[in-house]
Design goal:
The radius of gyration is 66 Å and the shape is rod-shaped. It is built from 17 helices and 17 strands. The strands form four sheets. The chain has a five-stranded antiparallel β-sheet with strand order 1-2-5-4-3, with helices on both faces. Strands 7-6-10-9-8 form a five-stranded antiparallel β-sheet, with helices on both faces. Strands 12-14-15-17-16 form a five-stranded mixed β-sheet. It is α+β, with helices and mostly antiparallel strands. The longest helix has 72 residues.
Length: 619
């Protein structure tokens, strides 16, 4: 209410009306008291006059010496006389009203008082008793009264007009005093309220300025992209901005009053010299700024947050005012640096692989010619051995016939002995097997060399038709060293598979990654026997599909959504960078508008499915 009054333009009106109301109320009340006091004054005058007359004039000695004292007397505006129902002096004979009053006094009434204001000159009548005394018996014994009986009374007549005139003057004075007091108090109140209003306005302006400055500072700290915490000399948090609440997970109210070190480290105590705890302690001691340090804070949820922080003294006029800690989350920066380093390693590995690919292509080219010589020679040896076998059969028939001819027994015996020594039957069987195995091995080497040569070829950067069965076969042959010790492969290549327009080299890389991942999954399962990798190619009128199924561990549910994320891997350190499937997805879906997904059952293996469209959109 007071604030509204001070803010109003008519603030002066309230004290004026307030004191006017108080003045009018007081004046009416006082005037009413004055009006009521007329009767009280008349009564008091009558009583005083009665007592004065009773004490000074109603005594035996005075009555004996001066009987005239009982006559009617006048004193200014008061008339008095002694009255009796049976007076000695007829002038003291009671009037009708007095006779009635004496009868009331006879019955024990202490006094009788009655106003008579309806007359031309109004007045008040007061009558009190006069009792018989021992000295009165001498003169009034004839009446048969004894000491203590009512002898008569003293009648006092008080004129009303003088009292009323006096009260009228008093009313005028009272009115003047109220008016003068109203004017003086009103002016004083208005001046005081004006001063109060000026002080109030000044206070409001000061409060608004402080509020604006406080809001400005709050906006500054709230807009900071860094955590901002004020810490006192005891290490307790006194203020924390919203960014620090978000970075640490604690609310501002929760942090205030708590030790900052406990909030950011939990139960762990930092040991590094560059920890924020050490920086705070040293800044509290020497007042120097410390900046450019890294630390690891603990989020309320329990996860770690990499931060860069600075510690500065809180500059105030008082000493020992505390420090300010600013910090920001550098987890993304560290992750980006790690990704950059991984990409650099991946790029270096890619460069190495390109060099190895070029070297492998050259080696394959150099090996291919001698392998062809070896293969051709082995085929010649096989054919020659078959001819020699025929010759040996003829020699065997000749030996049988020569054994019956006399004179040739020794020669035939020597031939048979030689046959037994060399174990001709074993040589015939094993030599044939050796020749077959050599021819098979040379063919396999030629196949691997051809696959390496095709796989190492950089290929065209333009889409071209490619045989998917050949791509699959080459990829399986190239990575044989990855799977041959842990699994067997089963190629189920579809017949009449249409050629697919694609980047053959990059699709070969996808298939190679899928087969190697299948081998690693089987190896991680630690089976008692070899696992199995089944590669199937099929097609329909819209696409060609390649399915690579393994009997490995399967993919856990909690990581299935992250399988294709860059740098995500469940393999041991050194076994993978987490880029293979991410790159494969980019090749299949981004460059070929195809599909790459997986079907898995935890504990029973995984099947990766690659679908390439036969007819791509031109966009």
């Amino acid at each position: 209410m007071l604030i509204r009054l001070l803010q109003s333009r008519y603030y002066w009106l309230f004290p004026v009306l307030f004191w006017l109301l108080i003045t009018i109320t007081s004046l009416i009340w006082n005037l009413s008291l004055i009006d009521r006091s007329v009767k009280d004054i008349a009564f008091e005058r009558g009583r005083i006059m009665f007592e004065m007359v009773r004490l000074t004039k109603i005594n035996p000695i005075l009555m004996a010496n001066d009987p005239a004292v009982f006559k009617k007397q006048v004193m200014e505006d008061i008339h008095y006389r002694a009255v009796s129902a049976q007076p000695v002096n007829p002038e003291n004979m009671a009037e009708a009203w007095e006779m009635e009053a004496l009868s009331q006094l006879e019955n024990g009434t202490e006094y009788v008082f009655q106003p008579f204001l309806g007359q031309a000159q109004g007045y008040f009548r007061y009558i009190g008793p006069v009792f018989m005394q021992e000295q009165c018996i001498q003169c009034h014994g004839y009446e048969g009264k004894k000491v203590g009986d009512l002898r008569g009374g003293i009648s006092v007549k008080v004129m009303a007009q003088p009292i009323m005139d006096s009260q009228f003057q008093f009313k005028q004075m009272m009115t003047f005093m109220h008016v003068a007091g109203f004017v003086l108090i009103s002016l004083t109140s208005v001046l005081l309220i004006q001063q109060l209003r000026n002080q109030f306005n000044l206070l409001n302006r000061t409060k608004n300025e402080l509020r604006e400055k406080e809001q400005f500072l709050s906006d500054v700290t709230n807009s900071m992209s860094e955590g901002f915490v004020v810490i006192d000399q005891q290490g307790a948090v006194r203020y924390a901005n919203p960014e620090s609440e978000w970075l640490l997970g604690w609310g501002g109210v929760e942090m205030e009053g708590r030790q900052f070190v406990e909030l950011v480290y939990g139960d762990k105590q930092p040991t590094a010299e560059s920890s924020v705890k050490s920086a705070i302690d040293m800044t509290l001691r020497d007042g120097l700024i410390r900046t450019g340090f890294d630390d690891v804070f603990l989020h309320k949820e329990g996860r770690q947050v990499d931060v860069a922080y600075s510690v500065s003294p809180l500059l105030r006029e008082v000493s020992d005012s505390g420090v300010v800690v600013t910090f920001n989350d550098i987890s993304e920066r560290k992750r980006a640096d790690e990704e950059r380093r991984n990409l650099e390693r991946q790029l270096n590995q890619t460069h190495k692989m390109e060099a190895v690919g070029q070297l492998a292509g050259g080696i394959a080219h150099e090996i291919n010619t001698p392998i062809q010589y070896v293969g051709d020679n082995l085929k010649f040896i096989k054919e020659s051995y078959e001819d020699l076998g025929s010759l040996l059969k003829v020699y065997s028939n000749l030996m049988q016939k020569a054994s019956d001819i006399p004179g040739l027994e020794a020669e035939t015996a020597k031939v048979e002995e030689t046959i037994d020594e060399i174990d001709l039957a074993y040589l015939e069987e094993e030599t044939a097997n050796a020749i077959e195995q050599s021819i098979s091995g040379a063919s396999q080497v030629a196949h691997i060399v051809l696959a390496m040569k095709e796989f190492a070829h950089p290929g065209s950067k333009q889409m071209a038709l490619a045989d998917m069965n050949r791509i699959v076969s080459n990829a399986v042959a190239v990575c044989k060293n990855e799977w041959k010790y842990v699994a067997d492969t089963d190629l189920k290549l579809g017949e009449n598979l249409p050629q697919v327009e694609c980047l053959g080299g990059e699709i070969s890389q996808v298939v190679l990654n899928l087969v190697i991942n299948a081998a690693h999954a089987i190896e991680a399962a630690k089976l008692q026997q070899k696992g199995k990798i089944t590669i199937t190619t099929t097609h329909n009128e819209n696409s060609v599909e390649v399915r690579v199924a393994d009997t490995g561990t399967g993919i856990p549910i909690e990581v299935q959504e992250s399988v294709f994320n860059p740098f995500f891997t469940t393999k041991d350190v050194g076994r993978g960078t987490g880029q293979g499937l991410a790159i494969a997805q980019d090749i299949v879906m981004g460059k070929h508008q195809g599909e790459l997904f997986f079907e898995t059952e935890e504990g029973n293996g995984t099947t990766f499915v690659m679908r390439l469209p036969l007819h791509r959109n031109s966009a």
